[in-house]
Amino acid sequence: MAHVEPRRAVRPGVPDEDRRPTQEETPYLDALRAYAARKPGRFHVPGHKGGPAADPALREAVGERALEIDIPALMEGIDAGPEPTPFSEAQRLAAEAWGARRTWFLINGASQGNHVACLTLAHQGQRVAVQRNMHSSAIDGLVLSGLLPTFMAPEIDAELLIAHCVTPESLARALDETPGAVGAMVVSPTYFGAVADVEGLAEVAHECGVPLVVDEAWGAHLAFSDRLPVNALRLGADLVISSTHKIVGSITQSAMLHLGPDSMLDERVVDRCVTLIESTSPNSLLCGSLDAARRHAAVHGAELLDETLRALDVTREAVREIPGLDVLDERIAGRPGAFAYDPLRLVVDVRGTGATGYELAPLMLGQDDINLELFGENVLVAVFGMGESGAEQGVRLVEALRKALDSLDVPGDRRREDFAPPPAWGPFELSPRDAFLGPQEVVRLTDAVGRVAAESLAAYPPGIPNVLPGERLTAETVDYIQQTLQLGGTLRGASDRSFETIRVVVEE
Fold this sequence. Notes:
single chain, 35% helix, alpha+beta
């Protein structure tokens, strides 16, 4: 491809060219706004031309100012031109705020971070230890990279039937079983707020000579309050995936990837992998929101998180006062796979009411327009953001819970009900990549035993994949999934949600 010169525009002036921006500033967002304020000739994409050519309904919905700063890449004085550009300064400030050697802005969410992590590790070899209940994007990363996983089981909460984290002992066993491993991939915090012993995991990984990748998608806020568990970068992680939009408040689909200060990984390889799978038309609104969210967290995070945590303390007490309800809190710290607890998740234990989360969540939505992050057999999960009006929202949530319970006629306490433990995973016959890309067919479930799966199946509870692409289906696995569905559980991952058919590999 021929070299294309960046588009030329006047670079926004600054009083002192030698002064580096500080955490109180947003260099990239400011550059976008300065460009828009000049009312330049926009003889470039996007076609809405900063708003005038946009559909009127879009202009009304998102506002003129948002469209004005929707600016393409390679703009002189914004992300092109003499270094450091405003964009590179924004990423530098993010690395400084989170404690990274280098940070990349991601425009395809934390999912992109998992893809980058797998592609980075694949530069070193094929074998990797992977937490079994990693986000589905990590499994997609295995498909993209061709890595061969050794899966580690997370610890299961025996009471709530939810998955916590992997322990250092489990990681040590997995690495012993994975000669030539090039890395380990774990999750912390979980959807339910359990935080792993990341320091212990890092020690185990580094003793075995491999880097530790932490999917900290749910923990972008941990770096900004002493009242929260320590973030993974400070505890020795080599590469950390951070879904900044979830709690810290950037725009949905924006995220960051952080390289640990003493990382074993090659910064240039990570950068190459980021470039490989990112769009050549990165969205300036997403990146600008990351710049702003970083400033918000770095400058005001401790104060804002303190406000949210106080509101959550009050809300948890109010939930406990409702007969039959309880909440997860710091009491789970110290249980297997829960080294610490992240209180920004409000996890409501509904077993004592006789109702299930599957019954309560739709009622709360229909009656009071309460939209929960997650619900399952035994729990409801509400997410609170950094600095939102937590007290007001907590009152609304508690009132909706009471109303939903009052409208149900349920038999009583379900805390004695037991789901059978899941069976052992079937043998791995193909890499996830070969299973996903190879010839496939759809067969009836009764004919699937003994076949190699081409898709994922995860019964909830507890939500750990029972089979992944490349694994051979066993009769025990099929029976377990059917029994879970009969007991009121659900199935995720299957292309056929009724579980009457399944996609399998065509074997010669």
